Amino acid sequence: EENRRLTAIIRSSDDAVLTKDLSGVVTGWNQGAERLYGYSAGEAIGRHVSELIIPADRVGEEGRILREAAAGETVSFETERVTKAGEWIDVSLRAFPIRGLSGEVTAICTVGHDVSDRRRRERAEQRNSEALIWRKRLRRALGNGGLVFHGQPILDLASGRVDHHELLVRMQLDGELVSPGAFLPFAEESELIRDLDLWAVEQGMGIGGKLPVAINLSARSLGSRGLLIAIERRLSTGAVAPGDLTFEITETAAAENMPGARELVGELTRMGCGVALDDFGTGYGSFTYLRHLPVTQLKIDIEFIRGISDDDADRRVVESMIDVAHNFEMTTVAEGVEDQATLDLLGELGVDQVQGYHVGRPQPLELG
Ligand code: C2E
Ligand code: CA
Ligand code: CA
Could you tell which of 154, 166, 168, 195 is best to mutate to test the pocket of ligand 1, judged by most ligand atoms within 8 Å of the CB? Predict the structure, then answer.
């Protein structure tokens, strides 16, 4: 009677209750397990848990569970599992030994509980508070001179000289320099990105009065009158020559706002500035944008450059990018050049300029 009652409880439990032998092969699988993991009892019993629901990079966990439970211990932890449909779920697990009549451990029982919703909420909350912290830091840095530009040289292959430097923003924080990857995504989700772009334009055009530079603009800048006015006003002082300025906009930003991109590119080139299409090749349908955007330069994304010495397909893609660019009378820059072999190959393919750690890392500029 007692046994039957226990069996009924386990069967109908909301939790996924499963039993396995000491090597990890499933011997019992309740309805909760069917619901949570997607496999029926018939499908699961007789198979090893690690080939059913444990993600490849977590198989080591199972060894630990088996060892500790076999030694008589109860193990509780939160982890991830993969369902029959291939969906990743967050589960809280508790594994404990089942003992035979003489007290020896004969099997292991695992009780799993879906905590995906809670973990999702926690992750969202954590991201929100991170966003708040980074926006606050950025606001402060914008206000008190806590942002600096590093410059990375872009080498012209024909002349063998540095053509210009790309300006890359860094945040000074507790004596360290933070790369834009940490704060830019959060800035881009708020109005702060306008302030950052305005800062980059003001600061960058100041540096541009001393040496040729490229300034990155965010997607939000496309079609922003305020930014264009700031650039125009600064140019009208004559302190910086438009030919010494290149503005970089990413291909994805342009794709998301074609009218804005056309207006910005049109105005900037009319003023005599260069405009580069950044991260070229990473978007969808890259080549179609070229017809509509009179940019002066294509920056071929590192993704394609990395592989050219040993991947024939990458090499051919880069070759066609260079071809197309030249047909449209645009110059080409290869990003992410990290070794001499790649640099040599790019020269053979006809790239105009190269940028990357092999040429020079981003570093503080000597403005003399
Ligand atoms: P990006 O415009 O594609 O800039 C190139 C990134 O690649 C830089 O990262 C640079 O340090 C890195 N890099 C350069 N050479 C190599 C190489 O040989 N190998 C590898 N693996 N990486 C290389 P960084 O400085 O962290 O900047 C990241 C992104 O942040 C930039 O990507 C750009 O989109 C954005 N960003 C940087 N400064 C500004 C800014 O002032 N304004 C705006 N709106 N965005 C900026
Ligand atoms: Ca760039
Ligand atoms: Ca880039």
Answer: 168
